[in-house]
């Protein structure tokens, strides 16, 4: 499991920030209808963020993350992967997500990301980034190779193998925030990712937090607060650098 079900992003809330939020149902080019959550500041800074959740799809952690972005001026949309197999209704903690994960396809995720990008562009936001976690981290990097016109792609503890294979197609800067104690992603994997990006001429930064486990970006894991704080600062700095 990537997070405890009641965990929250380890990001300070900006009290009094003027933001609005809403549940959405978006439609991809292939006709898929899927759930999403948007948070927007009253005074947008012109930049949009597409949030790609972990394997459980859209739930509270990512809705709260969208709000944290909105408090800082960014319009953010988190979306669900399982519209094709689980519909658009909100789900409780008993949802068995793995059978639905196994039915996702790169083509489906690509279409859904495209629909979110189109939604943001329809609101006048031309500078758009993806931010993903675990399953979503991998697909965030792949989104930079899918002709969405992204300004950058950020991934937390994503498996890089697919992005390595498509490094030559990546069209945007990459930020990879990896966990040094991840049991499924090795230092060799990360080194291969860096080599592939370098060889393809892709601007990138790969940071490994030594001793941090997969899903360290979790308020409940207070011993990894330093890594989480640094990762969040890097996310914001990366967005500002490439805006």
- Would you report the number of β strands? 8
Mean pLDDT: 95
Major sheet description:
8 strands, mixed
Give the uncertain stretches in residue-range form: none
Biggest sheet: strands side by side, in what order?
1-2-4-3-5-6-7-8
Commentary on this structure:
The protein contains 8 helices and 8 strands; from the N terminus they run E-E-E-H-E-H-H-H-E-H-E-H-E-H-E-H. The protein is an alpha/beta fold. An 8-stranded mixed beta sheet has the order 1-2-4-3-5-6-7-8, sandwiched between helices. The chain starts with 18 loop residues before the first strand and ends with a helix. It has helices at residues 60-71, 83-86, 98-101, 106-121, 135-143, 161-165, 187-199, 225-241, and strands spanning 19-27, 33-41, 47-52, 75-79, 127-133, 152-156, 174-179, 204-209. 33% of the residues lie in helices and 22% in strands. Strand 7 (174-179), helix 7 and strand 8 (204-209) form a beta-alpha-beta unit.
Which SSEs are present, and which pair or pack?
Blueprint (H helix, E strand, L loop, with lengths): L18 E9 L5 E9 L5 E6 L7 H12 L3 E5 L3 H4 L11 H4 L4 H16 L5 E7 L1 H9 L8 E5 L4 H5 L8 E6 L7 H13 L4 E6 L15 H17 L2
Parallel strand pairs: 3-4, 3-5, 5-6, 6-7, 7-8
Antiparallel strand pairs: 1-2, 2-4
